[in-house]
């Protein structure tokens, strides 16, 4: 079978496919990549900031430049095409070769527009602009004099379009565009085909190098974003492990103490029961040592966490701090939220803390509604904020921020709950969570969220919970 594949990869048929694929991609099959909606200013043009132009969006400035050059090429092309389409006048020894300037006709104007329009379209449709420019050059060459078939306005527009094709299209498509353009140049004027090939190669080569640089930079940014997301997941799991150590260690210690004290409360405890209680104490202490060995090392990576972990009993303190920053916080508590399991209470506190932190940063001065309901073994949280108050502007997120949702998802998934964090129609944001007080037996372990599920540019959802 390998020999068959090798034979299929060589020979005239394979060579024909290798040649026709770029041509098919250039002429009808391929499409250009979508344009960057907010491209940065090139480094060599950043000096324009001193004149105010560089502070405008580069996409608008670039399109305006193309339109300006296209208008200039249009009017100069009308004169050039009209002159080259006019019949030649025999040389007059008395009056010389001078003749009246020919008046532009409808065909002249149509050809001039055809040659200049691709320049205005190259940013939106690079391949379409190239096809239009190539067709315009070929058609114009049929109407002008044989020794002057390359109209300068069409050549200038074609060079600009070729650069954009190389930047926005694949390598296969760029090769096909180069082959077709060189072949067309040789077909129009064979004696200048070599020079035309060199001129065509310059914008294609420059555009290809720009494309390679942008691709490398984009891949590097994606790798850094994936690394930041993975690091955020690991850091949050370390935090959860430390908190799990605090919560479980307390209960295991209580089991060991109660098992040791139980025989002294009742003097007539049977020896068999004493042995069982001693076994329970020993098992609890072994489990506690093993857990400290596995999880306790995480407490030493960035210093031991000895402070008690917060719960909803500190909700008033958290809300007071949020009000102190200018938020208008209203609360609604349904049911008794005291006595929650430590893990549930801690997770609920962190979710409310993260949602308020997001509101402080992205919607300063907004109205925030916090609702907590406990019923039927389920704790429901809802934190909804409106748009920023008049006169307030969102605070840009620091570099590397944007991982708050990672932590919330990890915590909720650990408890077998559900989390929703979505924008609302009024311009604000809503974070809702459902936390079971007792995790179901078949609750899955916390999955690693995909990197593209979280923003990497600091946009909402916000930052990691402190």
Automatic annotation (TrEMBL):
GO molecular function: ATP binding; phosphorelay sensor kinase activity; protein dimerization activity
Reactions catalysed: ATP + protein L-histidine = ADP + protein N-phospho-L-histidine
Domain Histidine kinase/HSP90-like ATPase: residue ranges: 347-438
Protein species of origin: Actinomadura harenae
Record domain Signal transduction histidine kinase subgroup 3 dimerisation and phosphoacceptor: where: 236-301
Cross-referenced InterPro entries: DUF7134 (IPR055558), HATPase_C_sf (IPR036890), HATPase_dom (IPR003594), Sensor_HK_TwoCompSys (IPR050482), Sig_transdc_His_kin_sub3_dim/P (IPR011712)
Low complexity bias: start-end ranges: 454-466
Ranges that cross the membrane: 56-81, 101-121, 128-144, 150-166, 173-188, 194-210
Assigned GO CC terms: membrane
Pfam families: DUF7134 (PF23539), HATPase_c (PF02518), HisKA_3 (PF07730)
Compositional bias ranges of the Pro residues kind: 387-399, 438-453
Protein name, UniProt field: histidine kinase
Annotated keywords: ATP-binding, Kinase, Membrane, Nucleotide-binding, Phosphoprotein, Transferase, Transmembrane, Transmembrane helix, Two-component regulatory system
Region of interest (Disordered), residue spans: 385-405, 434-466
Signal peptide span: none
